[in-house]
Give the backbone structure.
Amino acid sequence: MSELDVLSERLQLAIARRPSEDTYWREPTAMPAALARVRLAFGERLSERSGARTNRCLLAFRMTPQQVNFVDLKLICRAVTRPADWEQRRLIDDDRLFDTLLAKVDALRSQPRRHQACLRALEAASRELMENAKTLQGNELRLNNWLETAQH
């Protein structure tokens, strides 16, 4: 059985209707229940996976870090620990860009809602990192420490 067949089987099992559920997809509760099972079976929420928009934001930030808007900054904060381009580079591994990112988030302190939104995105990235890494080192550890001090 190929990997594609295994994936297809897992997807079919995850989306299959349960006896206690409504029979038809037209029912308001059927589709959300099936999608919740797929998200649970495959881990991360599908809508949060690095997509083209996130990759474009990360690439633009690498090229011109001083010219980033708030919406892009939130996406960058969320994806800071993910390998996002064809070289599988993570923004957190680039000291200069990581410093710039933290400085940009810190500069939002005068705008509490935006600052909190970026902090939440960085916290989500940090949680994702801690789930996948055995030990934190370098900028990974620095992100954790920075988040602890940024909350106060």
About this structure: The CA atoms of residues 108 and 115 lie 5 Å apart. The chain is about 60% helix and 0% strand. The radius of gyration is 19 Å.
